[in-house]
Amino acid sequence: MSLKSRFLNILFWSVISAAFIGPGTLTTASTAGAMFKFELIWALAFATVACIALQEMAARITIASGMEIGNTIKMTTGFSWLAYFIGFGVIFGCAAYEAGNILGALAGVQLLLEADRIILTIIIGIACALLLWLGTVKTIVNLLGVMVAVMGIAFCYVAWQAELSLSEIGQGMSFSIPEGSEWLILGLVGTTIVPYNLFLGSGISHGQSIKNMRFGLVVSVVLGGIVSIAILITGTKIDGTISFQNLAIAMGDSLGNSAKVMLALGLFAAGFTSSITAPLAAGVLAKSIAGTKKEHIYKRIWQAVLMAGLIFGISEVKPIPVIIAAQALNGMILPMVAILLIIQANNARLIGSQYMNSKWFNVLSLIILNIVLLIGLNNIFKAATNALGLAATDETVRLIYLQILALPLMVFTIYKIWQLRKN
Are 247 and 263 in contact (CB under 8 A)? Predict the structure, then answer.
């Protein structure tokens, strides 16, 4: 593989980083930096490893079986409705959060320019629509890779200017859970492992070898993890209320106007790339589940997701009931997909014995699954309490309850792995 091919492969797989480094990651990572300084860097490092593991399984299953994971779910479970339920939930979530992606890009522009909010929102929406309409999936993916590079340079520049302490960063890589940080740690993992990314990674892996896929995926996601850590480091400069505006002010005051400009550029790139990847992934997923002959479904779905985000973005109406429902659905879907991926990656009949998970990879996958289950169950819990107007319970007690609920699913997955490997 030539140097040029390696570079293009990294650029291609950078779409995964483009999807998980959005306004949600910006908010969560900068909050972690503001509240706990460098202490939660290890959580982002773990989240990066977890993202690589799950994305690699999704792509490996597709390359080895010749089928995208939407189809393998239908085939291996025998339940078509399960694939459709997962597909609906993921697409619904893409639509629910698309307005936040568009408004994140808008926030980046507004840090530098004073212009009409509605006009800017429409311009961003039209730009996304043109790229999705005129470009092929491969072209869009490569363009997003370039934007991720711009975003990475911007945030790494800001972090580098923030008087880095290598000793503090080193301490942040050591495992510790500061008091009150438990749910923020789960949030850092949850914003890095995005359900629709698994289907997007599966959909774009056709035609690649396992070796090339692993190289491009690992390098691009590691670079994405470094960008997330840079955002956390940038957040250590915030004093007071956590917002993009306050972060920009802090950067401008302490590091000069150039840092503020780079922050605005990074925020715009994060929001804009996520505004494209969400409808792109929704379309790819819908096409995967419906069948490769139904090309028109791809366009209809991405159009619907983008239009939903644009309408809510222009109207400034926060679709709270929709977001609550999306939280609940994604709370179920991410653990379900993770369990199915782990089981399929141990199915020799599906992918061949040479492509099955190794024993150490299964151990890592189960650790990741436990975290994913806690995140998913917590999302369901939050959606239920918000919908019913209930008071939040003690965080430690809630964590214990959620771990008890996760245990049967862990046992089920371990049993299925043992059963498949035994046969």
Answer: yes
Q: Are 194 and 32 in contact (CB under 8 A)?
A: no
Beta strands per DSSP E along 192-242: none
Q: How would you class 81 by CB atoms within 10 Å of its CB: exposed for 0-12, middle for 13-18, buried for 19 or more?
A: exposed
pLDDT digits (tens, 9 = 90+) for 266-288: 888 888 888 998 898 898 888 88
- Residue 386 buriedness (CB in 10 A; 0-12 / 13-18 / 19+): middle
CB of 55 closer than 8 Å to CB of 201: yes
Q: Which residues neighbour 243 within 8 Å (Cβ) at sequence distance 6 or greater?
A: none
CB 353 within 8 A of CB 143: no
CA distance 238 to 35: 9
Q: pLDDT digit string (tens) for 179-208?
A: 778 778 888 888 888 888 898 899 888 888
Look at the block and give the residue holding tokens 């070796």. 211
Distances (CA, A) of 17 to 25, 135, 174, 221: 11, 19, 24, 6
For residues 65 and 305, give the distance between their C-alpha atoms in angstroms, rounded to a whole number. 29
Residue the block writes with tokens 């589940």: 289
Give the pair of three-digit tokens for residue 391: 């008071």
pTM, entire model: 0.86
Q: What is the pLDDT of residues 340-379, one digit of tens each?
A: 999 999 999 999 889 999 999 999 999 999 988 888 888 7
Q: Which of 312, 315, 314, 339 is nearest to 326 (CA)?
A: 312
Q: How far apart are CA 369 and CA 363, in angstroms?
A: 10
